[in-house]
Amino acid sequence: MHREPALQEAVIIQLARVFQSIGIYSRDHIDDALKVIKEYSSQPNLMKPLLTLIEALCTSLGKEIHRWLPDIMPRIIRAFRNEHNPNPNPNRDTTNLALDILVAIGPPIVDYTHLVVPAVVSLFEFPFSDSATGEERRVLAEISLKAIQAMAKLSRHLDLKGYSSRLLQPLLRVLEGTSSHFVPLTGASTSNLASSSSSVGGTDGVEILQQAVLRLFSDLMDNCSAREEYLRWFEFVSRQLTRWKIADSAFEASLTRLRSPFEESVHLEVVAEEYLETEAQSTESTETLDMTSIQRTWEPLAQRSKKEDWTAWFKRFALGLLKASPSSAIRSCLGLADYYPLVRELFNPAFLSCWNAMTDSNRSQLLSYIDTTLRYASNAPETVQSLLDLAEFMEHDDQPLALASDLGKVAERCKAYAKALHYKESLFNKDPSDIRTIESLISLNTALGEREAANGYLKYLLSHVDYSDARTELLARWYGKLGRWEEALESYTSQYNSAANKSLPLLGMMRCYEALGEWEELDTLAMQVFQDSQWSLQLEEIDLSDPRNRMTFTVEGGETSYLRSQVATLAAKAAWSLKAWDRLERHVTILDPNSVDGAFLRSLVALQKGKYEEAQEYVNTTRDLLSVHLPALVGESYQRAYDVFVSIQELTEIEDIIELKTTAKDNEERKAVIFSTWNARLKGIQPDLEVWRRLLRIRSIHCHAIEQYHGWIKFASLCRHEGQFNLARRTLEELLGPEHVRLLNNHNLSPSQFSGLHPEVSFAYFKQMWVESEKMQVHAFNGLQKLAAHLDNCQGNTRTKAHIALRLGNWQLELQWYNESNSCDKSEVIPYILQYFEEATKNDPDWHKAWHAWGIVNSIIVEYYQEKNWQKSRKRLVKEHVLSAVSGFINSIALSPGNNLQDTLRLLEILYSYSEDTEIESAIIDGVSALSIDIWLEVIPQIIARIQSGGAIGKFVKRLLLKIGLHHPQALVYPLSVAATSHVLARMGPASSILKKMKQHSAVLVEQASLVSKELIRVAILWHEMWHEALEDASRAYFGNHDVDGMFDRLMPLHEILLSGPTTPHEKSFHQHFGKELDRALDCCQKFQQSDKVADLNNAWDLYYHVFRRIDKQLPQMTALELQFVSPALLECQNMELAVPGTYEPGKQVVRISSFFPLLQVFGSKQRPRRLSIAGCDGLEWSFLLKGHEDLRQDERVMQLFGLVNTLLKKDVRTRRNDLAIETYPVVPLSPNSGLLGWVTHSDTFHQLIREYRTARDITLNIEQKLMLRMGQDFEKLTLLQKIEVFEFALESTSGMDLERIIWLKSPNSETWMVRRANFTRSLAVMSMVGYILGLGDRHPSNLMLSRHTGKVIHIDFGDCFEVAMKREKYPEKIPFRLTRMLQNAMEVSKIEGNFKTTCINTMTVLRENSESLMAVLEAFVHDPLINWRLMEDEEGSCLSTSDFEGEGASPSFVGRTRRSISIQERSGNGEEALNEKALEVTKRIKSKLKGRDFNPNHVLGVADQVDELIVQATAVENLCQCYIGWCPFW
Questions:
Q1: SS3 content of the chain, % helix, strand, coil (to 5)
Q2: Is 307:315 a contact under the CB 8 Å cutoff?
Q3: By the 8 A CB rule, do 1427 and 1193 touch?
Q4: In angstroms, how far is the first alpha carbon of the chain from the final one?
Q5: Cβ atoms within 10 A of the Cβ of 686, count?
Q6: Beta-strand (E) ranges in 869-1003?
Q7: What is d(CA 735, CA 717) in angstroms, rounded to the nearest whole number?
Q8: Does the chain have fewer CB atoms within 10 Å around its N or its C terminus?
Q9: Which residue has the higher pLDDT, 455 or 1376?
Q10: Do the beta carbons of residue 93 and residue 48 sit within 8 Å?
Q11: What is the mean pLDDT of the chain?
């Protein structure tokens, strides 16, 4: 916002007017308004406009404002006495405005009685000096009157129990009338006050105030909930009024009612009458709808036949609605209507505003016009799409339009497939057994590119629906739609052999051959059809009115009118691929030249004949035809329009070929540019088989296949990943030629026979052979060996040689190391295995993958020797392999294009394990010295974890940290500050020493980091919370365990802090309120230590308990913290050198801290985390969750693991296609029991979303739990069978569709909804698999978040890892991950089958294929001395408590888990052996999961079977019903 104060004020006031105009829709933008309020609340000159903005929000939102009151209330209260104003007296305008706002808030203000009453009562009287002028006294008197009148209105909503003395004493002083606090009000002031007062007897100011006080007395008596408390006071007030000779009939009537407890108060009736009167006035003031002007926009529809006519009609209709709208906010946008896209955006709200004001007859008339438009405007897809958008908009507003049209068919006709999908799913929910609906769902998902979801529908259909009457016919069609062409071909062939009319199965077979690239078979069938008159006759007999037949023969480029044209299109493509140009020309003559396929294929014929101008004309025609539907498709999504873009790309490459054959024929430089562009395009397109084949086939017109072998080899690789083995093999066979294929399949192949073969194509063929058949693996291995031997005798091809050697090494591992059926001694094959990996490093010493594999294979061998206990007997041999592994990892790290986390951790692990071996140590240190310092930034936590080590490791760690600190001090200051605050001297000393040395070059930075870290720790755990937690723990130790020493260990450090004296205003306040009692309690404890008398200890506990109760009452009221009270030093930090936590990245501009926002929001959960905002030098607000009482170092390690998983998912073609990734956020530990978590923006917890959804619909939040308790009152004591029965009863009695409805309602349209739902399903699947490997537990609804923008599931709170939750004694979790019915219902209607299971399989495949990389991180995780103490947690360490993200008002059943803040390792040095055993057990368990041996150690499960087993466990009712009730298994 502009820095000019006057302009700032004007902008804020205009913003307030905007919110006033849009009314209830303010809720969509209130977060932005709160940011403005928060940012400028510290500027006194903007207090009034900010209050005006707050008043507009309260007025617009009504009762909904309660959700944002924690942010708003502190700023309202601050207005009464502005601390930035040196004048102690309040400002009249801002104070009056603040009072009006409090009144406007209404009933929700009851939760803030403790803030409102003291603030308003403080305005009743002002002790100003005798030097005050008359005007100053008059202003204060006016404020007092306003405050008294406001309190009269507020008394209807506030809970004033316990406030009688605080309210009535100052009011009595006002009544006395002789106090010097007030002066008579005369003149204009009196008249103004009198006009605002409800009953003023005269013009004297004292009388006006007294009348206001008497009215307040009456309201207090009528509204009070503590009758006895107020009755005693008002009896006293009555006596005082008699003494002062003040009589008031209303007061006496109220007092009489107060004395009679059984007499009903009439207050509620008065309020009801006032409310009804206000509503009536509001209704009368609503502007009427000008229906005539709207009807004039509806001209006869029959006159519109062109697309332009419909566009003009829609614009006129939209403008008519804008003009006639009853909403002034919408009408004010009329001036912007010249911009057509904005008209479309405003159409829906304008329609809604008019619709709400229409009569039933007008609505019926309007719906009939819309129906007619949908029926006749088929040539205007944009207009139809706008009306479909309107139907969706009204559905979101719970006012669906009762249209006669089938919106699903309309949407499908105009290619709005996402909208059609929504309507078809609604039909499916009504009748899940309707085959045609399921078939439509399969078609729509296929058209939308959601192939996994379409397969899920097919699986659902095969298992749930009876379709036996036409099984073969239906299966063939379904398989074709899903792209499962080999299965479709098999079904069509079976149908062909038994059908009387063979035309349908024959055409289906042709489509399959085209998709599979079997051009000879397709060409043969096509020729048979065109040459046989019987086939032509049968083609004509096919009923095209049957939509199933039309869908069967829909070809790319659009539907044609005649089946002969479709056959001709398929035949032409076959002739093109076979380069049979004469047949291509003959087939093209059948096609319509004005169709996409007809024009496109004619351009190829003209190109082949050398008629380049004619070819260009056909290219232009094709491009024009494609552009017809492009706007509608792009409007839906880029992915929907991708196929058209690919077609346009084909046309561009035809133009490139024309250029190559004409102007660039002799221009070698231009040729090079074109070929380079072609290669770049292949790298940028999606990994889709059809897309790659289309582009490569275009290029084959100019180039022979072998000339672009890189592209075809990549295409074959894609085919393998998709399971299209036949297509992959056929592609490679076309590159090789028949003779060479026979040669490669010859088992007696010799190296010399490779002389005429292309080495890379031969290599690809052997890889295909290995994947395709286990029986051929040995032949593939032997053949590749001979190819390698041939290349050894040739010069060059070093990269190919390296790839082949690496592949041979991996294959030999598979055949002779991991193959259980192989009985050979592993130690004997080690030299042969190492030979290939070593050759890979020698052939291409700059290839990091070869060095990584060299390091891994040597690590595997070392692990094998350790299992055999050969470390001593073959010590030298083991050392050689360790040194080789070190060499491999160091070179891999040095050569990797990015960070190499797994190899870096492997290297550190070797150092820590073999630190006593000087040769290994020196090899690592020498190798590390040559590495870039940047590679260590990712593993700083693991390095600092060993900072207390002695000997060579300690020296290495300290030397490395000093080097990092020299080059990247920003990356090191926060982690070192954590170590410097450790309770273990062995950690604190080295960390402090390194920080001291860093001051030599970064003194300011280190000082700032120390200050910020110390102050944030102070703010994270206030003295109130520190003592509250300590007294709880101490009472548990003393009264529960009779552990007096444990009690003293918990309390004495806090007494020492208290004796050191307070620093901040908040600490001083604590000291003033509780210091004396705590000092007395300390004296009693010291007496007990001397006398050993229990009475002294009991006296201490009496004092402690009194302090605890007072703190316990105060904590819930601390909903916001102001830095000026809790940390003035932090508030004073401005323009620091220190980076915003978690933002530092080497090589990028440092985002430094500009300032800290003055207010922190406190969440009302057990741990009471705070939201902290930091202003960065980049102008952005960086928000964090500041957590105390919790060790975040494990969360930090989990984020490391997620980073590696994301890298692996991004590299794999199966997972990259769907952009699979885990959402991560910064984790910055500040101390062993506090830290910062990056704020996950635009996201809400599942618990919060479900609570809001159910509250808005008056559904009990924990309805399922109540149903369970109704059927089985003592649920925890029931038997397992009884629990299952009760649990199933609760599920059957509720729908569980909350989350599904939430995703739909929060999506603006079907296109966004479909994307978000797919993201929801896939992200849930990814984290289910990764969480299972990690052993992640405690996935209750408050630990899962949903992104508002993307729909992705975001996990938080990673305290329970390595199956700790499964092994705890109380409420052990039986499920591997959360997959409850609400999550399943939020997926596609086929639920688990489809996107979820496919993503699970793909993710688990990636994890298992990269198990070595994952184990590098997980083993470092498990053996980390700061983390592995969690493996030994007992029941107390994993106890259950309220979740950090759960609201204060939530049901007590919705709970989470709390973590101990200080590790066992930091408390003592015991338990080392037990920890190592547990770590080995955990490591073994993780390895078994990654090998598929998790269910049976003697049997390896395939990935799909493993996923099926996990899903069965996760969804089993017998497992879910045993979960802790706060886990919400019924959700």
A1: 70, 5, 30
A2: no
A3: yes
A4: 44
A5: 12
A6: none
A7: 14
A8: N
A9: 1376
A10: yes
A11: 81
Least confident residue range of 665-669, 737-741, 818-822: 818-822
In 3D space, the residue among 1441, 1266, 1302 whose CA is nearest the CA of residue 1360 turns out to be 1441
Tokens encoding 344: 């479309």
φ/ψ of 1235, rounded to 5, equals: 175, 180
Q: How confident is the model at residue 1503 (pLDDT cuts 50, 70, 90)?
A: very high
Here the tokens at position 1149 are 């501009």
Find how far residue 940's CA is from the centre of its chain.
27
Phi, psi dihedrals of residue 465, rounded to the nearest 5°: -120, 140
Q: Which of 1132, 1098, 1526, 1117 shows the shortest CA–CA distance to 1342? A: 1526
d(CA 1201, CA 1220): 15
- DSSP secondary-structure letter at 135? H
Round to whole Å and give the CA distance between 440 and 931.
Answer: 58
Residue 311 zone, left/alpha/beta (φ > 0; ψ -120 to 50; rest): alpha
Q: How confident is the model over 740-767, as pLDDT tens digits?
A: 888 888 888 888 888 878 889 999 999 9
Residue 836 CA neighbour count, 13 Å, CB half: 22
Q: How far apart are CA 1193 and CA 1426, in angstroms?
A: 8
Q: Using alpha carbons only, give the angle 1124, 1127, 1133 rounded to the nearest 5 degrees.
A: 85
The Cα-based distances of 1516 to 1148, 1298, 1332, 1483, 1525 in angstroms read: 49, 21, 16, 27, 16
CA atoms of 1270 and 1444, how far apart (whole Å): 29
Residues paired with residue 1175 on neighbouring β-strands, in sequence order: 1155, 1181
In the chain, the amino acid numbered 475 is L
Going from the C-alpha of 220 to that of each of 77, 233, 256, 573, the distances in angstroms are 22, 11, 13, 89
Average pLDDT of the residues in 1000-1028: 92
Phi/psi of residue 1448, nearest 5 degrees: -65, -35
Calpha distance 1415→931 (Å, rounded): 23
CB contact set of 1024 (below 8 Å; sequence gap of 6+):
1070, 1111, 1114, 1115, 1118
Closest CA to 639 of 1218, 1222, 1250: 1218
* Residue 1136 in this model has a pLDDT that exceeds 80: yes
User: DSSP E strands: which ranges in 516-666?
Assistant: none
What secondary structure letter does DSSP report for 111? Answer: G
Closest CA to 593 of 630, 563, 624: 624
Give 498-502 contacts, CB < 8 A, sequence gap 24+: 498/472, 501/538, 501/541, 501/542, 502/538
DSSP string, 520-561: HHHHHHHHHHHH-HHHHHHHHHS-TTSHHHHHHT--TT---S
What share of the chain in percent tops pLDDT 70? 86
Residue (of 396, 403, 452) closest to 422 by Cα position: 396
Q: How far apart (Å, rounded) are the C-alpha atoms in residues 1019 and 1122?
A: 10
Helix 134-154, helix 187-196: angle, nearest 10 = 0
Q: Give the Cα separation of 954 and 948 in Å (integer).
A: 7
Angle, CA 576 vertex, CA 573 and CA 581 arms, to 5°: 130
Digit-coded pLDDT (tens) for 569-619: 889 999 998 888 888 888 888 888 888 889 999 999 999 888 999 999 999
> Model pTM?
0.75
pLDDT by residue (tens digit) across 649-683? Answer: 999 999 999 988 888 777 888 888 888 888 888 88
Contact 1073, 1110 (CB under 8 A): yes
DSSP conformational letter for 1139? B
Q: Which residues pair with 1238 in a beta bridge?
A: 1184
Our measurement of the distance from residue 1225's CA atom to the centroid of its chain's CA atoms, rounded to an integer in Å, reads 10
From CA 1107, how far away is CA 1084, in angstroms rounded?
A: 15
